[in-house]
Amino acid sequence: MSGADAILSVRTHLHGLRPRGRIAAYYIVFVVIACVAGPWILPYGHAHIDLHHRFLSPISAGHPLGTDEIGRDLLTRVLMGGRVSLLVGLASTILSTVIGTALGLVAGYNSGTARFLITTIIDATLCFPVVFLMLTLAAVLSPGVGTIIGIVTLVSWMEAARVVQAQTRVIRKMDYVTAVVAMGASDRYVLLREVLPNVAPAVIVSATLTIARAILLESYVSYLGYGVQPPDASWGNLLNNAQEYLESDPWLAIIPGVAIALTVTMFNLLGESLRDAIDPSLRARGRRS
Fold first, then answer.
1. What is the C-alpha to C-alpha distance for residues 86 and 235, in angstroms, rounded to an integer?
2. Per residue in 130-158, pLDDT tens?
3. Which of 160, 264, 158 lies closest to 205 in space, CA to CA?
4. Quick one: CA dihedral 226, 142, 81, 268, positive or negative?
5. Could you tell me which of 158, 99, 149, 101 has the C-alpha nearest to residue 124?
6. Are 227 and 187 in contact (CB under 8 A)?
7. Three-class secondary structure of residue 67 per DSSP
8. With contact defined as beta carbons under 8 Å apart, do 235 and 82 qualify?
9. SS3 for 44?
């Protein structure tokens, strides 16, 4: 399959998503639009304090999701927190996918020293527990969105590298790649024009699942106080702030918790649906079951 055929195949599979995949895609689009545009439309800023209207319950006048312990509008803060969490998820996924894809192509196409070094780095990095590695780095470095993006990227690129490496080792043995090499094509040409388009479906699926994982990691680190710092909001530090009020005002924790759970679930559903649409054998097994 040529590069153009591979790209056309990806587009065809995207139109063949199962209903749950389409629902997940619609939800993700809705959340992204809401988080980007919502804080600009709502009348209250995410840092606006109103001590006369503290702990308002959801569906209160002017505050659809209520207010927090110092009177800040919870809907605005959830949307701002979603903007940060999605930014971390998308940015770290893009960076980790680019790094992992580049290293995976090199390791899968070449043999000898290059493959050995890259594989050793991947295996060595995977030996460290991700959560402890993230917390260690977050404690050493100054907290902030850029720091979290860098840390999540550092602990996420190995999955893409492994997927691409495995796919590249299979594709480089295909007849059409052998023919292109026999015609005198350079390694760079073969990797960029023949191999890369054909590993793209696997990369897309891996990236979709990585976004969900990155959002969870950001929320976890921010919940423990090493990520995004107040008064800036993220879904993780909203949960951290709400834990003192679980008995008296549980919605302060339930709302950001539901936002995290739904968003991560929808990204996972989208990734699984893309995988089923792209891999005919998986789709066939799904029909039989």
1. 10
2. 777 787 888 788 778 888 899 899 888 98
3. 160
4. negative
5. 158
6. no
7. strand
8. yes
9. coil
Q: Residue 146 gets which letter from DSSP? A: H
The type of residue at 211 is: I
Q: Identify residue 134 by its one-letter amino acid code.
A: M
Cα distance between residue 215 and residue 212, in whole Å: 5
Cβ–Cβ < 8 Å for 173, 114:
no
* Whether the Cβ atoms of residue 78 and residue 35 lie closer than 8 Å to each other: no
Q: How far apart are CA 43 and CA 63, in angstroms?
A: 10
Report how far Cα 279 is from the mean position of its chain's Cα atoms.
Answer: 21
Give 60's strand partners: 63
Tokens 């109103």 label which residue?
A: 50
Pick left, alpha or beta for residue 144 (phi over 0 → left; psi -120 to 50 → alpha; otherwise beta): left
CA distance 282 to 264: 22
In whole angstroms, what separates CA 103 from the centre of its chain? 19
Is a pLDDT exceeding 60 seen at residue 288? no
pTM of the complete model:
0.82
HSE (CB half, 13 Å, CA atoms) of 11? 6
- The answer to whether residues 136 and 218 touch, using CB atoms and an 8 Å cutoff, is no
